[in-house]
């Protein structure tokens, strides 16, 4: 009925809507979505604006056109956080900022936003650089190492030291470092499946996951208790502890802080680790780009580690990172749920319908990013033949999402990734062990899987 409709699309109904082929009885498209999701998304989404897919018996829509994607991400009244990914995550990690629905989100975000003010992020530059330099100093020339693992370790340490405390007790830090990867991978494995399988059977994987959950919750509680009254907020956790609602003056309860810490751990570690691993891999397979980055690192840093004041001058590093985030966006798929009868560019949508958004799909549309499979950091220069009108490309480049649910940690992540990247570029050349191109592994984030690389030391050019 017209009166129940909560708003209509601002776009005319000229969208190309198709139904994804080969739905299986009862399962619909669950099998290709789980087995080969990236190929499936590109196959069905390349030439359409909206594609109807079947998740079991339910209908969902993959939104493929950047203007429609923006409409969905910006209008949280009609399209809220929800759909299977966030519904599963909420059951597993609670109702922190990542999973909160609209009614709760606004209050939470106002509380947490000050913790991500750029002046705070600037304070962490020293810790981030120190961790990057310390981790890479342990590499041995010519000895292969799993770069995915190495980047995971360094990002976990940076998360712990900036989120919790720079002086985290050694035993606590070790417990966290061991539990976190098991926990994160377990959470995402359980969340990304459209159909939830029972995961309480006492098999080794479930027992390991349960143990990691207990460790993590215990550690978070003890760190929160120890930081209840910070004299001067030095970590993100301290900032959460002292933050007050601008209207009511209320602080967050310990339970709320716990949920927010879980949300940050979930959102921060794997995403940055995947972004860095892919960037290093792509550089190793594009030696000219690698040399240009090294030349920039040499020119700006010489033989000292990077500092805050270097960040604005790292133009090549920024383009490299931007392009890596385009070609291999860590958050490759997320969902929204329709809150009320509405329509999206002419398609009538019922409440509870799931919408799928895939930055991976948008970033690989040849009409938006010419030769999308090529890693070309200079496509971001206006002089490049691959450069398209900034508005069109910006609208389609969504590694951090958009609207009021856009990643709260975007600047934090970029600062962190740039510092690690130039610290490595200044000191090391990385070679892959295997010549076969690495295919993206779509799990929690778009990872590389195990990635053996050989570090070769280099000295900065004079
Ligand atoms: C390269 C690294 C990162 C990528 C690609 C990334 C990507 C994203 C994306 C796409 C979203 C929006 C999801 C949606 O709309 O459903 C998001 C949300 C979020 N991210 Fe990130 N993220 C990164 C790093 C971080 C870091 C370092 C933190 C925290 C320290 C963080 C914290 C969050 C939080 C709390 C949200 C939820 C925001 C809200 O709903 O208000 N992320 N991220």
From TrEMBL:
Keyword Transmembrane: no
Cofactor(s), by name: heme
Organism this protein belongs to: Streptomyces spectabilis
Family from the record: Belongs to the cytochrome P450 family.
Taxonomic lineage: Bacteria, Bacillati, Actinomycetota, Actinomycetes, Kitasatosporales
Keyword terms of this UniProt record: Heme, Iron, Metal-binding, Monooxygenase, Oxidoreductase
Descriptive protein name: Pentalenene oxygenase
UniProt-recorded Gene Ontology molecular function terms: heme binding; iron ion binding; monooxygenase activity; oxidoreductase activity, acting on paired donors, with incorporation or reduction of molecular oxygen
SUPFAM superfamilies xref list: Cytochrome P450
Residues that bind heme: 407
CDD domains recorded: CYP170A1-like
The enzyme's E.C. designation: 1.14.15.32
Pfam families cross-referenced by the UniProt entry: p450
Keyword Coiled coil found: no
